Amino acid sequence: MEYTIQEYCGMSRTLGECRGNANAAARLYSERYRGPRHPTANVVRRLDKRARESGQIKPGQGVIRGRRPYRHTIPTSVKEFVRFSQGIPP
Questions:
Q1: pLDDT tens profile 41-56
Q2: For residue 66, how far is the Cα from the chain centroid?
Q3: Alpha-carbon distance 15 to 55, whole Å?
Q4: Does residue 50 contact residue 57 with C-beta atoms inside 8 Å?
Q5: What integer pLDDT is reported at residue 48 of this predicted model?
Q6: Where does the record place the DUF4817 domain (predicted)?
Q7: How far apart are the first and last CA of the chain?
Q8: Quick check: 47 and 4 in contact, CB under 8 A?
Q9: Given pLDDT bands bounded at 50, 70 and 90, which one contains residue 75?
Q10: Under a CB-based contact definition with an 8 Å cutoff, are residues 83 and 90 in contact?
């Protein structure tokens, strides 16, 4: 089961209070927020990494699925330009 936004925000706050120590943040979160489940230190580490790298809180947000965009390549020589203008693949 996935954590809610509120739970992820709580984890992020406790990680900040613990100055980036994920083990201490997981312990503090379990003491502070009583509930049926508590994150492990690895959950807190993944949250921190995801937030820093992609700016997303929940996993799977902002993932672009589907076909990659087609990018045109610019010909660098006259021979490549002629082939490109005639529609001949490289």
A1: 999 999 999 888 888 8
A2: 17
A3: 16
A4: yes
A5: 93
A6: 4-57
A7: 49
A8: no
A9: low
A10: yes
